[in-house]
């Protein structure tokens, strides 16, 4: 019955790791990310949950004859901010999954 103590110990360690993961995820969700395009003409902010929280468009970039440029700037800034969130998520949560091969974990 010596192996049962090891199993209990392992369960405690897993619960501890799970608690740290949840804490790290909560901190990540609270972070704010920002990206801009067109030399700061369009700025997009998002939180760690990948929710866009703000879009700022400078007046001088609004040209009724060139809506496509404005759309491209918004797309570029949005994609950049989402990429930042993905990178931070991988950096933050990757510490918990190193060495584990669990599909779909993160």
From TrEMBL:
<dbReference type="GO" id="GO:0043590">
    <property type="term" value="C:bacterial nucleoid"/>
</dbReference>
<comment type="subunit">
    <text>Homodimer.</text>
</comment>
<keyword id="KW-0238">DNA-binding</keyword>
<comment type="similarity">
    <text>Belongs to the YbaB/EbfC family.</text>
</comment>
<protein>
    <recommendedName>
        <fullName>Nucleoid-associated protein J43TS3_27980</fullName>
    </recommendedName>
</protein>
<dbReference type="Pfam" id="PF02575">
    <property type="entry name" value="YbaB_DNA_bd"/>
</dbReference>
<keyword id="KW-0963">Cytoplasm</keyword>
<dbReference type="InterPro" id="IPR036894">
    <property type="entry name" value="YbaB-like_sf"/>
</dbReference>
<comment type="function">
    <text>Binds to DNA and alters its conformation. May be involved in regulation of gene expression, nucleoid organization and DNA protection.</text>
</comment>
<dbReference type="GO" id="GO:0003677">
    <property type="term" value="F:DNA binding"/>
</dbReference>
<keyword id="KW-0175">Coiled coil</keyword>
<dbReference type="GO" id="GO:0005829">
    <property type="term" value="C:cytosol"/>
</dbReference>
<feature type="coiled-coil region">
    <location>
        <begin position="7"/>
        <end position="34"/>
    </location>
</feature>
<dbReference type="InterPro" id="IPR004401">
    <property type="entry name" value="YbaB/EbfC"/>
</dbReference>
């Amino acid at each position: 019955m010596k192996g049962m103590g090891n199993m209990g110990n392992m369960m405690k360690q897993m619960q501890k790791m799970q608690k740290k993961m949840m804490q790290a995820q909560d901190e990540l969700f609270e972070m704010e990310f920002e990206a801009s395009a067109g030399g700061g003409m369009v700025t997009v902010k998002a939180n760690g949950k990948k929710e866009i929280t703000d879009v700022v468009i400078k007046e001088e970039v609004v040209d009724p004859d060139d809506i496509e440029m404005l759309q491209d700037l918004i797309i570029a800034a949005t994609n950049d901010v989402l990429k930042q969130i993905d990178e931070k998520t991988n950096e933050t949560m990757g510490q918990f999954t190193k060495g584990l091969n669990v599909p779909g974990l993160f």
